[in-house]
Each structure stands twice: as structure tokens, then as C-alpha cells.
Amino acid sequence: MEIVVLLAGVVDPKWRLERLALRAGGEQPDETGLPYRLSPFDEAALETALKLRDADPAIRVTAVIPGDAARDPLLRAVMALRPHRVFRFDTAGAPLWDPHAATRLLAAAVDAAAAAGLVLMGREFGDGDDGVLPPLLATARGWTFCGQAHALALADGAIVAHRMRGPREEAIALATPALVSVTNDRSNRLRHPLMKNVVLTRREPIEIVTMPADAGPIALHARSLAVVPPPQRGAGACRMLEGPLDTQIAEMATYLRDWRDGASR
Amino acid sequence: MMETDILVVGGGAAGFAAALEAAERGAEVLMLEKLSETGGSSAMSGGCLAFAGTDMQREQGIADDAALLARDLKQLGGGAADDALIAVYADHQLETYDWLKAHGQVFAPGLEASSGQSVPRVHTVDPADLVRLLAARCRATGKVTLLTNTAARRLRRDATTGRVTGLLAEGPDGALDITARRGVILASGGFSRNPELLAQFAPACEHAVFVGGEGNAGDGLRMAWALGADLRDMAQIKGTFGKHPTDELNNHSCLCVYKGAIAVNQDGRRFVDESLSYKLLGEACLRQPYGTGFQILDAPIMASGDNEVRILDFERRLEEGLFIEADTLEDLARQIEVPEATLLKTVADYNRFVDAGEDPEFGRRHMVHNHGALRRIETPPFYAYPSTAAVYGTYCGLRVDPQMHVIDVFGERIDGLLAAGEVVGGFHGNAYMTGSALGKALIFGRIAARTAVAA
Ligand SMILES: Cc1cc2nc3c(=O)[nH]c(=O)nc-3n(C[C@H](O)[C@H](O)[C@H](O)COP(=O)(O)OP(=O)(O)OC[C@H]3O[C@@H](n4cnc5c(N)ncnc54)[C@H](O)[C@@H]3O)c2cc1C
């Protein structure tokens, strides 16, 4: 079976977004020079695919990262984990925050890989998605959809997705082709690459697939883009204890006592 | 123009130990820290301290003393280490342990044997707490002034006597000219964050990972060097074995080998006597293909770790997904992409050596240094910890005499200039004992302070 993992990448959260702007003359965000990482959801999707491959040597895994050249370091990091194939689906800078355009784009990205029996992606796809892209893509293509799985297993050749629904764990046998969005969990934390493979992939060429011209127009156009500063500390329920140390300790002790008494009632 | 009795450059363990000792002896101290936060490598360290003959060791039935400690240090130094500095460490370590305890320092209950130790003598503290404690005690004396965001730039010398009388620094409000009546103590740490100096002195570590305080760029070293200071052990910079090569969250090495694991390279072969100092293991590792290897262990070795000691916290790292786990050695070999047959043979050979009591390949006889009987690797699950070498400290630098005066290339004292901590060379020599760098920072820091106060 062919598994395609779609990986979005997010701007490295350790990076301070001081500068955020639209491209000169364009309606697209200028993301030049921003470092990307896989999001925890991307990582969970990738690890889930690698685990299936480990369980069944007949499974082939292709990882696809849509985006421009800024994603290439990310591509190498994924290559070091040795899926069968990794390529960048060059989106010519088209952003993914317009869901309909993004759906067309991601469908084209999946088509660029071999006919997939299973498509995996994080439960949220990149910085601009709040979880609509996976179901939208599945619906657009008529694939079986399962959202927020934390594990996939093979049972007699069929794929069974596991997910939590409240206190219950559901096990759902999926008809293929299927698209599963994956949530992060202790059990699907992404493995580390072997140093050997990190070194070897440094020298390997990167495969780039160009977006077909008919991928479709973009409906939503950005007019402006701004950095919203994080809320001031103390604006909410959080506040620093003040005054002499003894006063602070007494206040903290009272707080903890009340909390304990409240919890045991 | 500012003036003080003693000027301390650097707010790590050495700087704070020096400042506190000097203040307790009545001196007025000005301390410069180039970053906005103090702590340096000290605060991010493993918090392992090498002390011998402590009450903790006695309570746990461990026979150790200053003489055995000195013997281990000499053996590790391999002739390169300065016997006089080893003697200073050995003679003053116990009093520094007691001094820390008297100041309220708490040690983790367990004692461990690690790199270069014939008996368990790793005394573990929370390293950031250690620095905070010393800083708080310094504040409480009312005699120590700390200037953060203030970097020492150049030492100032008296034109006629040659004595170091102070230095030029740069703070948030511009240049500062500071006079130190009784001396300047350089406690500015090593240079693991200075790529040019590393390329110059440690070309063999090109592929190593570098970890250390952000401000550790060798400023103090270069300032003293500019006055003609002699340098020691510059050729001894080595990476420490056991750093996971692709994990960015754990700064510390993991030394399963010291609990009985073996180290193999990407070909599945052992390459070293794993009981040696982890600096020597690091050196050997960097010569292997891809500059990395794996520590191979089984379930009992995994269970023998100690989650309170950062270099032996195996189970914590297992939880973090850093170990590769398998029910058979064959499967482990597949996962780490090492030839199966070779790994199986390596482990089988090693187990035979353990039974026979002799390792004809590399001569390993103990778990670590002269401590601990070897154990077979046989009970599943099996584990591999990917490991390369990381340079945590440069452990080389200024030549000092036993009073911590900096000595110039002609063997003469540079008057008014003292040094302590990682900026000092000549103490470790060829290899390295766990806990001796943080130990040296505290012990030598206090001695430098005493010398300056007496000046
Ligand atoms: C991850 C890690 C783990 C380690 N674990 C251990 C361990 O368990 N046991 C052990 O014995 N050793 C350990 N070491 C080594 C040990 O921590 C250091 O050798 C020791 O702490 C050095 O202390 P120091 O005070 O000399 O330097 P540091 O603690 O590095 O302090 C030097 C300070 O000087 C400041 N500074 C530098 N230049 C200037 C300037 N121009 N002006 C003003 N300030 C300046 C720096 O910013 C820094 O704050 C470890 C090191 C690392 C990195």
C-alpha cells in the first residue's frame, strides 16, 4: 500500500515574529528567512506512517511538503528519517489559509505522489489551519475520513484507526482510500534520525514537483498582516505576588490551603 | 571611574565562590557578568561535584579520601596535569564541601561512580540552585555588587610596576574604567562558544556538538593572553562521549557504559575500553564513521540508572523516546541500521569476555575506571542510545600557581591577576574526572579570593 503523509511545517515557535508583512506588490505573506519546524501534529502523522512501514515492509511511505524553498531544510530533516520518497510540492508561495484553494492545492500534491491508499496529515495543517483542511480534503476527493486518530494499526490487511472520544477509545476499520488526521500523543512522538542518515541526506538532491497550472485561483486575498503582541502579563488571572517575602509566602500558603480544602470537598 | 577591593569577572560557580569567600573575609567585591543572567556553564551543568572523604560517603560505606582522589586525578592527567594544582584540589575539596553545606547547599542522597572515579564520589546538586544559593549569600554579605550586562574588555596594567590594577569594561551605559585595589580574578569560564578559538585549538572536535554558557567565548583567556599569560592543556580539548547527536532538548551526556553498557560504532563493532574517562571515549567516538556510535544495553542495565544524576538518568530519557528499544538484538540492529550479524557477534564476544574476566580486544576490566564488576548484556528488552561527543567545556587555559596567580610565558607572576574555574588550564591534563570542573570552579575560586584578600 502507498501512504502519503502531507506535512505542513510551522514557523519555529522559538522564533520571534518581529517582522511580518505582505510581499511587495502581492497579497501573500512574506515568509522569507523564517525557520520552519514540523508541528507536533505533523510529527505525529509522520511517525504514524513510519510505524506502519516498520510493521509491514510492503508499505511505501511518501512524504510531501507543500511550500517554497524556505521549506527545504525541513525536507532534509524528513529525508533523514528515510521514508521511501520525499518531495516538495512547489506552491509558488501560495498560502494555505484560504481553505478552498488549499484543498485544491493539497489534492494536487497528493496526486503528484503515487495513487495513495492512505493519506495522513496532522489534525491542524500548518499555522493557518484550525482543523478544517483534513475533512475538507477528504470530502472533496470522496475519501473515507477519520479525524484526530492517535494510532493506526494493521489488522488482516485493513487499517484500523484508534482515537479517543471522551473517555472511550474508538477503533475504526477504514475503507480505503482514506484520509486520517492525526493528533499528537506520547505514543506517536517522532523518532530521532540516525546521525548516519543525517550525514547522508546532506548530500542528497532534493526532489521538487511543480504545481500544475490548473491548481486553481485563490479566493481570499490578504490586505494587511500584523504582529499581535502577546498579552501583558498580569492582564488575566495570572499575577505576580508582591510585597515582602514573608507576605508573599503567607499569601501563597493561604492560596494552596484553600485550593486543597476546595479540592477535598 | 569605579573602585573596589576585588574585581571578579564572570558570574558562574567560580566567580560567586570567589566573591563570597572574599566578602566573608571582609573585602569589597565588584562582580561583572556580561550576560543579563548569571550562571554560565555552571548553572546548566549536570551539578556533579567530585568530593572525597565526605560524611555522605562514610554513611554509605564508601572508603575514599583526598589521597585516592589525587591518585585518580594524576592517573587521568597522564603526566600533563600539574601535580601542584591536583594537590590544591585534593587538599581543599573537603573544606569546600563543608562550606557549601554550611551555606545550606543540599545534595541528592545517592552517590555515583562516574568518569575517572575509583569509588562513587559524584555528589549531585541542582546546579542552578547552587549558583542562586551562592548569589544569595553574596547579596546577604552586603559587600558584593553585581553588574550584569557588563563585559570586561581589557585588563589595565600599571605602566611602571606591570601590576594589573583594574580593567576596562562595557556596560549598558557605555564604557567603564574600574580599579581593583587588591586584584582582578578572572572567572569568565571556557570558550566552548567561540568557533575561532575552537578551530585553532581543537580541530579534532570539528564534528562534535558544542554546549556551554552563552557568554563563554574565552574573553578572560584572551585578556590575560594579551598580557603574556602562559597557556596549559590547550591540546587536550576533547568532546565528552554520550551526547545524543540529534536531540536538542537534553544538554547532558548519558553514560550507560558506566553501568555496564558497551559502545559500538555504525559497523556494529566496539571501538574502545568503555570504562575510560568519557573524554577519551569522546575522542575515540569522533574517529568512528559519522563521528557517532551507540551505547548498547539490556533491561537490568537500564534499570540500574539513577534519575537524580543527569548523566545516568536512563529511564527518564527512555520516557522521552531517546532510546531505541527492541525485544531482540537482531531487531535492535535493524532499527539502528547496523549489520545484524556483526552486532550479535560483538555482544556474544563481549559476554564471553565478561565470563572469562578478560577483554582481549580493549582490556576493559571495570564498569568505570577502577569501579564495578562487568555484567553480561543478555536480558531483553535491549536498548541503543545514539551517542556522539559534545564539548561541554574547554578545560584548558591560563597557567596558574597554587595560589591562583596567573603565570606568564616566562614563568613569572602577572601581579594583581588571578584566575579560577574553567579559564584555568593545567589541572585536568589528558582526561577528565566527572565533577572536577565544577569542583575546581568552587575550590579554586575560593583560593583565588583568599590570595587576593591577603594581597
Ligand atoms: C551541559 C554541561 C554539563 C556539565 N556538567 C558538569 C558536571 O556535572 N560536573 C562538572 O564538574 N562540570 C560540569 N560541566 C563543566 C562545568 O559546568 C564548568 O566547567 C564550570 O561550571 C565552569 O565554571 P566557571 O565559573 O569557571 O564558568 P561559568 O559557569 O561558565 O561562568 C563564566 C561566566 O563568565 C561570564 N563571562 C564570560 N566572559 C565575560 C566577560 N568578558 N565579562 C563578564 N563576564 C563574562 C559568562 O557569561 C559566564 O556567566 C558541565 C558543563 C556543561 C556545559
From TrEMBL, chain A:
SUPFAM superfamilies: Adenine nucleotide alpha hydrolases-like. Keywords: Electron transport, Transport. Residues 26-218 form the Electron transfer flavoprotein alpha/beta-subunit N-terminal domain. It comes from the Bacteria. InterPro entries: ETF_a/b_N, ETF_b, Rossmann-like_a/b/a_fold. PANTHER family: ELECTRON TRANSFER FLAVOPROTEIN BETA-SUBUNIT, ELECTRON TRANSFER FLAVOPROTEIN SUBUNIT BETA. Belongs to the ETF beta-subunit/FixA family. This is Electron transfer flavoprotein alpha/beta-subunit N-terminal domain-containing protein. It comes from Roseomonas alba.
